[in-house]
Amino acid sequence: MKSRYLAGASLALMACGFTVTLFLPDSVFVQLLRGGFEAGLVGGVADWFAVTALFRHPFGIPIPHTSLLLRNKDRIVQSLVSAMENELLNKRSIENKLRNVPLLSNAASFLTRNLRKRSVRTEMLDAAIGMLREFPIERSLPALQAGIAGYVRQTDPKAAAETVVTKLIQSGYEEKAFDYAISEALKWVGQPGTRDVLGRLALEKLSEVKASGFMGFAIQAFAGFASEDKLGTLLQNMLISAGNGLLDSDNENRQRLIQEIRVRLFEFAGDDERLNRWKQGLADFAAGPEGGTFLLARLEEIRRGLIDRLERERASGGRAVFAVYRTAVRSLSRHPQRVEAVQNRVLAAVIDWAQANHYRIGQLVKENVEQMDDASLVRMLEEKVGKDLQWIRVNGAICGFIVGLVLSAFQWIT
For residue 183, which of 232, 234, 238, 243 has the smallest C-alpha distance? Predict the structure, then answer.
């Protein structure tokens, strides 16, 4: 520390000057210098003692009222903590500062600036992929099963069934399901193999029919006339015609069937006994080993699908990440009131957290100081304030020299 060397040099200068004047021929000028150097030496030594006594015992001698900082370490720490908590960083000042910070605006600027960089986007995707791969699905599965089973047991099955049925009918899903079933049935009926199956079954059933009289004669005659291929073609065409008719929205049979489906759905939604059995069975399945196996397989499929999607996105530079962010920002910008509400909620949460953890400021200061040994504490304080304190020694020597000159001149005059 240069100031320490300067302070030592000033003290040495006063000592050397005083010593030299002792051997010079006595004169008014020499007396003036001797008085100045003597007072400067006394002032420099006194200030050296005072400054040294703050940090340690001078010359290692435990003189009373020295090493003041170490002797009063606890009081100094408490004063420092009190100043930090109650004056420098009190709760009100932190709250006022936070209320003037545009958190969402700053966060948006930061994200916009960084998400434009390909490296940042790929790093984000790498982090997301790593988290997905390391996520412990197996360990979280019991809690997930318990949550699903508990939710199912607490759910009112009748209200849930009525809601689902109402939504299905309002959205026309019962007609879509009916059309899908008829279309799939028509695909099967239209296959050549189906025609053979229908013909063979019809021929077998005709041969099993037992009737007497003219009816028996007619059936036997028809069975002898019809072949398997003819019967199959006949039944196939009849079924295709009937199926196509059911796909016509104006078909009366279609309307009757769909109305019957709706009635059955509402009957099912009102069947408490059956719904409770389904509810209990679903809850037991969700909580049991079979449900766990099923859920684990589905979660693994979802994880693999997400990882594949993220890896493809990473290979393309993660442009979709910025596109999603940009879409979200534009959507929010069209709703300033919503942005303000989010800002207020986030700000309130941050302020609550800061106030709840305000005591940690002083605690952190105290812990850090207490972890330092005496030598480290003294060294830190000397590095921070020692430079200014060393100038006290220099000023003491200079002021003492000037005062000595004045006093020696006064003595000579009088």
Answer: 243
Question: The tokens of 54 are what?
Answer: 């703050």
3-state secondary structure of 191: coil
Task: Give per-residue pLDDT as tens, 353-410.
Answer: 777 776 666 666 666 666 666 666 666 666 666 666 666 666 666 777 777 777 777 7
> What is the rounded CA–CA span in Å between residue 386 and residue 4?
8
DSSP string, 55-113: HS-GGG---TT-SHHHHTHHHHHHHHHHHIIIIIS-HHHHHHHHHTS-HHHHHHHHHHH
Tokens matching residue 14: 């006063």
- Token pair belonging to 369: 């100081």
CA angle 331, 334, 335 (to 5 degrees): 95
What is the tens place of the pLDDT at every residue in 333-356? 787 887 788 878 887 887 787 777
Q: Give the closest residue to 35 by CA, choosing from 413, 392, 393, 389.
A: 413
pLDDT in tens, 141-166: 889 989 999 988 888 888 888 888 89
Name the burial class of residue 36, with classes exposed (0-12), middle (13-18) and buried (19+) by CB atoms within 10 angstroms of its CB.
buried
Confidence (pLDDT) at 220: 54
pLDDT tens track for 264-316: 888 888 888 888 898 899 989 888 999 899 999 999 999 999 999 999 988 88
Q: Are 402 and 16 in contact (CB under 8 A)?
A: no
Which positions ≥6 away from 128 have C-beta within 8 Å? 310
The string over 115-154, giving b where at least 16 C-beta atoms fall within 10 Å of a residue's C-beta and e elsewhere, is: beeeebbbebbeebbeeeeeeeeeeebeeebeebbeebee
